[in-house]
Amino acid sequence: MSVVAHTPSENLEVKKAKRESTFLRVFRYIAVRLITLFITVVIGIYLTIVIANMGGYVDQIMKGEIRDRVTQAFIANPSFQQMETDVRKNLIQEKIALEEERQGLNTPIAIRNFKFLSNALTLNLGRAKNMTSDSGSKQVRLIILERLPATLLLMGTSQLFLFFSSIFIALSLSRHYGNFWDKFVIALSPTSAVPPWFYGIFLILIFASALKILPFGGMVSSPPPQNTFDYAMSVLQHLVLPGVSLIVSSFFISVYNYRTFFLIYSSEDYVDMAKAKGLPARDIERTYILRPTLPNIITNFSLLIITLWTGALFTESVFLWPGLGRTLFQAIGLYDLPIIVGSTIIYAYLLAFTVFLLDFVYVLVDPRVKIGK
């Protein structure tokens, strides 16, 4: 049996070839991944535009509103009544045609959809149709930025508290499988089928209407307190009910999911081996249970962070919370397509970036994962 010995120069060439192969593999994976995600975003945004426009039905609604508005404006003018019938009809039709042209309704819907898609992908969000910001601006960018802080406050406090408390309690339940509190959480997990706005209505009836200890809705008292501390306390009071409704609606199912996940990993053979060696329970939990579950926990946390952008449509509407969720709900009712598409494209970009970034995070936390394999 012969042994082939490599010279130092040959070893360097082999290592260099491996590095180049790894680089090409990673570069190819990144390129394919970015192209795939971009195509997915394009398809998702185009479908949003088509659905929000109801295949052209919204155009018919807008044309009807233009016709009614123009006709009423002419009827309210006394000089219009003295004109001949044909002249009046021609004036109305000309004004209607000009207004439809100004809003682009005379352009074929397919062309407008692709133009809308191009503007959305370049974050040229344009102007809203019916909605305005508190400062009176119709710029979609300003409307979204104005509503964003309220949504981040509500969703950030409630969802982050829900995430960390669920993991902490789930770990505790996984240590005491089958005890009273474990069965209690399992029994109450179906209550998460009820949406948060439903809990919100009951909380309003109890704490705002009956007990009168918390406000019905809004973000701050009217008129707003001038003192900074009083203003912060007023916001905190208004935050309690919508925040609690969001937490309660998902708390038990979230704890149940994480508890089940931890139980699956705590029953692995290597965990039994670590217990047989006499390792402390905390070390076993941290090294052999929590670490293998990190990819799942990181994924849930990342998706939670980007969902803060969307807000809670119905919950914010029930509590009159001036956030993105309520804004989007109003935009849907007013057929304000730029607002709907503006919110969707930003969420789509955040989601695509998060999915792309998670591929590299998994490599850092799990040595079994390789980029491009």
Q: How would you explain this protein's 3D organization?
A:
This protein is an all-alpha fold. The protein has 2 domains: 8-121; 147-336 and 358-365, Orthogonal Bundle (MetI-like fold), CATH 1.10.3720. The chain has 15 helices and no strands. It is flat. The chain starts with 7 loop residues before the first helix and ends in an 8-residue tail after the last helix. 21% of the residues are buried.
Global morphology: flat
Q: Mind summarizing the main beta sheet?
A: none
How large, in whole angstroms, is the Cα Rg?
Answer: 29 Å
Class from secondary-structure proportions: mainly alpha
Percent of residues in beta strands?
A: under 5%
Helix content: over 70%
What number of domains? 2
Residue stretches low in confidence (pLDDT < 50, at least 5 long) are none
CATH architecture of the largest domain: Orthogonal Bundle
CATH class of the largest domain: Mainly Alpha
Number of DSSP E strands: 0
Distance between the termini: 35 Å
Please, what is the average pLDDT?
83
Count every helix, treating DSSP H or I runs of 4 or more residues as helices. Answer: 15
Helix and strand pattern: HHHHHHHHHHHHHHH
The CATH topology annotation of the largest domain reads as: MetI-like fold
